[in-house]
Amino acid sequence: MSESHRPTRFDMIANQMMKGCNGKVQQNNIAGTQEQIEDFQRIYGDTIRYLEDTLPKSVSVGVAGALGKAILWYGKKETKPFVEAFSKREFNGKGDPCLALWEWLIRNGNKRQTNEVYRRTVTAFRIFLRRGESKGYLKPALDDIFEWENNFRVMRQPRRNQHTRNSNTSPTKQTDEAIQADVEDMLGACPT
Questions:
Q1: Measuring CA to CA, how many Å separate 38 from each of 24, 32, 156?
Q2: Considering the entire predicted model, what is its pTM?
Q3: d(CA 184, CA 192)
Q4: For residue 40, what are the CA distances in angstroms to 16, 69, 135, 152?
Q5: pLDDT at residue 41 is higher than 90
Q6: Which of 48, 61, 109, 138 would give a disulfide with 105, using CB separation of 3.0 to 4.6 Å?
Q7: Cβ of 168: how many Cβ atoms within 10 Å?
Q8: How many CB atoms lie within 10 A of CB 150?
């Protein structure tokens, strides 16, 4: 993206992926250089284009940014069912995290900042991965899918096989406790 033109949707998705949950670029909380942005778009361009082409144009780039990082971390195979269901509005009824996200966006999307949309998308995707059900309220995620390494590279050992819809391995006790805490935290935030 050059400084002399208005950002495209492609530029905005890339920017949101770079920012993550914090709403700030992870490199010491300062914006990436023009060189870093161009490098990021070159490296992750296929993922950005897939989301740009697949998600409805009316949907916040916060959704695309979160799902872009999900693709990089978990892989397209694990992420595509969520992206496709959300894009085509093919929901599995009450409790479907895609539906919960869609309904939240309909009610609140234009009133909320992109960062909040991003964080609620992370929550919906995590519920989806765990084959969980949404209770109708998506609490904003407190932590991101992953944090970038230097120069916006994906960490060396993605957790592609942990907590995925097709995983045959059981998670570690520490991870089980973290999942339970996440679920209790999400349920505790539900209106009674």
A1: 18, 10, 21
A2: 0.77
A3: 14
A4: 12, 12, 36, 7
A5: yes
A6: 109
A7: 6
A8: 7
